[in-house]
Amino acid sequence: MEVVAELSVCTYTKATTRLHSSQLSISSTHLSYLRRRAFRPITRPRDARITCSVTSDQVQAPIAVQAEGPKTKNDCYGVFCLTYDLKAEEETKAWKKTINISVSGAAGMISNHLLFKLASGEVFGPDQPIALKLLGSERSFQALEGVAMELEDSLFPLLREVKIGINPYEVFQDAEWALLIGAKPRGPGMERAGLLDINGQIFAEQGKALNAVASPNVKVIVVGNPCNTNALICLKNAPKIPAKNFHALTRLDENRAKCQLALKAGVFYDKVSNMTIWGNHSTTQVPDFLNARINGLPVKEVIKDHKWLEEEFTEKVQKRGGVLIQKWGRSSAASTAVSIADAMKSLVTPTPKGDWFSSGVYTTGNPYGIAEDLVFSMPCRSKPCLRKFKRILQGDGDYELVKDVIFDDYLLKRINKTEAELLAEKRCVAHLTGEGVAFCDLPEDTMLPGEM
Ligand SMILES: NC(=O)C1=CN([C@@H]2O[C@H](COP(=O)(O)OP(=O)(O)OC[C@H]3O[C@@H](n4cnc5c(N)ncnc54)[C@H](OP(=O)(O)O)[C@@H]3O)[C@@H](O)[C@H]2O)C=CC1
Ligand SMILES: O=C([O-])CC(=O)C(=O)O
C-alpha cells in the first residue's frame, strides 16, 4: 500500500475557502497556468483511492487505499481523489469558494448532458470551481461510474470534486444546489395516481435528506415528473429550507413557447421576451401570449391570427414533449438540460430590465389570486445583489414574482384549469405532504407533456 503524504483535495478545499475572502479574480491564462502547475497530480497507481476526513480544525493526511480493495460507494471518484503538489504561493489568490451541486438521476439521459455543461463553467462562470455529488441507485451505480469516468476524461479545470453515491443523506451533504432529476418514468398501463405515489415517495425521502444535511439556503430544482407536485412534496418534507427555494422546471416549456412564437412571427427567437408559462408542467400548462412580447411589442399586435394563438400555439407547446417522444423514441434530454442551465443562470444573473422568466414556485403569498400552497409556474425576476469587492451585479439565487402582468377571460379560464389539476394532484399525495389521507380524483385528461 502506498501512502501519499501531500495536501489532499480536502485541504485544498479548505484553503480555497480561506482564500475566498481575498476575492481576487482569475484570468484564463492564470487558469491554464494553474492546471499546468499548481494542480499537477502526484503519480500513484491509477485506481488507488484516497479517503480523507476533515475535523473542524484539522485536516488529516490522506490515506491511499489499495486499488483492488472493496469500493465504498460514496467516495470521491478516481482522479478527483488525487493529491496535488499545491505550493503555498500557487494557492491561487483567486479561486472562489467551490459551489456544491448535488444531482439525482445522475446516470440518466438529462444528466448526461447537464453535468458536462455545469463542469464547463457555462452556468456559474469561468472562475467558479464546482463540486458534483451524483446520486444513483444500486440499479444505476455502474452507469454512474461510467459518467464519472467521462467527467475525469474531460479534464474540466473548474471541476474540483466528483462523488458518486446511492445514499441521499451522503450525496446531499452541504448541497448549495440540488438538481432532482431522477424519477420513475410512467410505464404502460400505469395510472397517473400510481406514478404520483411512487415518485412522490422518492421526493419525500429526498426532501427529508435535504432538510437534514443540505446547506440551509440550498436551491432545489425538481425536474423528475410530475415535477410540480414532486417539488411540493419535497418542500413539505424539508421544513428547515425556505419554501421559495424550491422550483419545478418549466423553463423547457418557456423555451418551447418562445420558439413557436418566433417561428410564426418570422423572427429569430431572441426577439421573444416576457414569456410566462402558468401552472403545471403538464398538458394543462398555459403559455401566456397575452403578456409575451416580440421585439418589445405585445404578441397579439405582431401575430394577428388570434385563433392560431388560442388553439394551435397553446396545444403545440402543451404537447411538444409528446411529439418529440414519438420522433425520438425517448423524452427530451438535451433541450431539458439546456433549460435547467437556463433556469440556474436566470437565478444567478440579473434578469434583463423589463423581462422575466418562468419557474414553478411556491404560491403562498402570490399576487395573482392563485390558490396558496401549490408549486405553480409563474413569472419571476432574479433578485440582483452587488457582489462585494468586484462591484458586479449578479443574482443571488433568489427571485421575486412579477406584479405587472395582465389577465383576460381566456387566460383566467386556462389558469383555473391548470390550478384545478394541481389541487387534485395535491389531494392525491396528502399522505406524503403530512396532510392526512390521500384522495385521488384526478381530472380525466391529466397528462404529462410526454404523454399523448
Ligand atoms: N420538467 C421537465 O421539463 C422535464 C422533465 N423530465 C423528467 O425528468 C426525469 C428524468 O428524465 P431522463 O433523465 O430522461 O430519464 P432517464 O430514464 O434517462 O433517467 C431517469 C433516472 O431516474 C432514476 N429513477 C429513479 N427511480 C426510478 C425508478 N423507480 N425506476 C426507474 N428509474 C428510476 C434512474 O436513476 P437511478 O436508478 O439512479 O435512481 C434513472 O437513471 C423524468 O421524470 C422525466 O419525465 C423530462 C423532460 C422534461
Ligand atoms: O413527460 C416527459 O417525460 C417529458 C417531458 O416532461 C417533456 O418533454 O416536457
UniProtKB/TrEMBL annotation:
Pfam hit, one: Ldh_1_N
EC annotation from Swiss-Prot or TrEMBL: 1.1.1.82
Top-rank lineage group of the source organism: Eukaryota
Annotated keywords: Chloroplast, Disulfide bond, NADP, Oxidoreductase, Plastid, Transit peptide
Locations listed in the record: Plastid, Chloroplast
Domain Lactate/malate dehydrogenase N-terminal: 100-247
Start and end residues of each Lactate/malate dehydrogenase C-terminal domain: 250-431
Catalyzed reactions: (S)-malate + NADP(+) = oxaloacetate + NADPH + H(+)
Enzyme type, top EC level: oxidoreductase
Assembly, per entry: Homodimer.
Matches recorded under NCBIfam families: Malate-DH_plant (TIGR01757), MalateDH-SF1 (TIGR01759), PRK05442.1 (NF003916)
Protein name in UniProt: Malate dehydrogenase [NADP], chloroplastic
Organism field: Xanthoceras sorbifolium
